[in-house]
Specification:
The chain has 424 residues and is mainly β. It folds into 3 domains: 7-95, Immunoglobulin-like (Sandwich); 99-168, Immunoglobulin-like (Sandwich), CATH 2.60.40; 173-416, no CATH class. Helix content is 10%, strand content 46%.
């Protein structure tokens, strides 16, 4: 027969009344466990202050209704009746038929992706009702890369599997290409970058690209003539405008190759190497009217954020470049046609000797970039963005980049989403 007394009144310590003066029976013990641990325990509807595993001692013998609950776990059943004998012990176990996966990261807040699908949850989170089997787990946090890149886990019935990630600030690789509408080898270089942007699985969280249109071999290149002083200055910044042939590619401020080299595999390797380089800060840039192509002046707010530790950037300068993400020319230039992408419009050093950036004090720099009038050179822009980067003042090595390119927080994988246009 079930007792009607409350659990609180049944704990040993209550006085045993006996008219005959006989010794009270020895109390019983109840051990409650669960798979996984950490479930809160109720006894006869009363919430205890214990979680599994737990042992309740000194109970009056009889039948108890025991329940367990944990927000992220589905126990089946979650309530059981148990008979506790006087002077004895009974073990009660709760389990789940489902598989359990806990995903954690440091820092927390990364979007959790299972088998390529954004779950809508962020770390830390436990999936308590998964079908047993193999899962691929990714954690995505903007401006960060994960170590490891992904976990492949086996989730088993009634067992908890943990996938833990370390999230490190990611380095965005900057490619600077110097080319011309009629240079031998330009299409090869363009095709390699285009492949990365569209089919290689790399996106704006991994690399950004700037095209500087040079005068060789066709001095009437309309992209070059639209801003000759800027292109010449950037060429001379590296090696002198006539000291390297076109096309030429710089990766993170260092010469990578010319005449269409390096190929796709080398570009991908450069992205991986740069992205894995230790870095402690990232860049954001806001340019509200960058999409209003009628506005020639583009105000920007650039922010350097060191989220975890102070960074000494005294030997570095902050640079910004306004680019046309897509632009067409008045006539077609064989073999490139009339459509080009990521063409530099203004390049400027906006801050020098950046000093120390601390976690509690992000560095904010305001700058306005001027877009030369494209109509005077037969150009029609169809898209515009701002790319920013931090470059060493003497070695010219670039350690971080960022851009106004969009990132969709509703899709954890959107940072790998390719742009709709090509790269020529």
């Amino acid at each position: 027969m079930r007792r009607t007394a409350t659990f609180a009144a049944l704990i040993i310590g209550a006085v045993w009344f006996s008219g005959c003066g006989s010794e009270p029976p020895a109390p019983g013990d109840l051990a409650v466990t669960s798979a996984p641990d950490g479930a809160t325990i109720t006894i006869d509807g009363v919430l205890t202050d214990r979680v599994t595993p737990a042992v309740f001692t000194g109970l009056e013998g009889g039948t108890y209704r025991v329940g367990v609950s944990r927000d992220d776990i589905v126990y089946r059943p979650d309530v059981q009746d148990v008979d506790v004998p006087y002077g004895g012990r009974v073990d009660l176990h709760f389990a789940t038929e489902a598989g359990i996966l806990s995903v954690t990261s440091a820092p927390a807040g990364g979007a959790i992706v299972l088998d390529g699908v954004d779950t809508g949850f962020t770390t830390p989170h436990t999936f308590g009702d998964l079908d047993p089997g193999q899962y691929t787990v990714d954690v995505v946090l903007r401006h960060h890369r994960s170590e490891p890149a992904e976990h492949t886990v086996i989730v088993e019935r009634s067992e908890e599997t943990v996938a833990d990630f370390e999230l490190l600030v990611a380095s965005v690789v900057l490619f600077e290409g110097f080319s011309n509408v009629r240079c031998t080898g330009c299409p090869d270089l363009v095709a390699a970058i285009d492949y990365l942007m569209h089919g290689g699985g790399y996106g704006f969280d991994r690399f950004v690209y700037v095209k500087y249109a040079g005068p060789v071999p066709f001095a009437l290149d309309p992209l070059y003539r639209s801003n000759m002083a800027m292109v010449n200055a950037r060429s001379q910044y590296y090696a002198g405008v006539n000291s390297f042939a076109l096309p030429t590619l710089f990766t993170l401020g260092r010469l990578s190759g010319a005449f269409g080299s390096p190929a796709f595999s080398a570009l991908a390797g450069a992205i991986e190497a740069g992205n894995l380089a230790p870095i402690d800060f990232y860049l954001t840039v806001e340019a509200p009217n960058v999409g209003d192509l009628a506005e020639r002046n583009v105000p920007c707010e650039i922010t350097l954020i060191a989220p975890y530790t102070a960074v000494d950037l005294a030997a570095y300068e902050l640079r910004a470049v306004l680019v046309y993400s897509e632009v067409t020319t008045a006539i077609e230039y064989d073999p490139g046609g009339d459509e080009y992408h990521w063409v530099a419009r203004q390049d400027a050093a906006v801050a020098t000797s950046l000093g120390t950036v601390a976690p509690e004090a992000p560095l904010v720099v305001d700058v306005a970039l001027d877009d030369p009038d494209p109509a005077t050179n037969g150009l029609t822009p169809h898209g515009r963005e701002v790319i920013v980067f931090v470059q060493h003042t003497s070695s010219k090595s670039i350690i971080q980049a960022g851009s106004t390119m969009t990132w969709d927080p509703d899709d954890a994988l959107s940072t790998r989403r390719p742009h709709s246009g090509g790269t020529r």
